[in-house]
Amino acid sequence: MQVQSSKSFRHLARHLFVVSGVYSERGRARQELDSYLQRMRKSIIRMTLGYSDIEKLKKKVDSLVDIERKYAKFFKPEDKETEGLKNQINALEHELMNEREEKYRIASDNNEKIQQLTNSLNSIKVKMNELLVEKSKRHQRLTALDQKIRAKVDVRRYYNS
Known about the structure:
The protein is mainly α. It has 2 domains: 1-80; 98-161. 93% of the residues lie in helices and 0% in strands. It has 4 helices and no strands. The protein has helices spanning 2-46, 51-75, 80-152, 155-160. Helix 1 (2-46) runs antiparallel to helix 2 (51-75).
């Protein structure tokens, strides 16, 4: 959720920055055109209007139209294809998020199984060590008992009788 809201915030901030830049450019171009039209009105009154003034006016109008196009691009209604593509992107992002969650769940399950197997193996090792110690103690007792029996029983007399 945090990543999605951060991504949305960055997108919104970037969009606002671009729109505000275009908006201020639009206002500046309109103001330039208005001031140039005022100067042309004055020059028409004085009869000092020339062809270069008309060319400058045409350039200013063209630049204003280009800026208006840029500005209108941000606020145009979305067509069906764009909306469909955005829906498809959202569906794919949702599917990707589900896949990541599934992958994370499987990895955590596997880690849990590995931990259980490791614990089982460790307990088997401990039990094996205990059994080996017990076996060696039993072997020592048997050896000691065998030596006691051999010391007390005369083997020659047992077999000769």
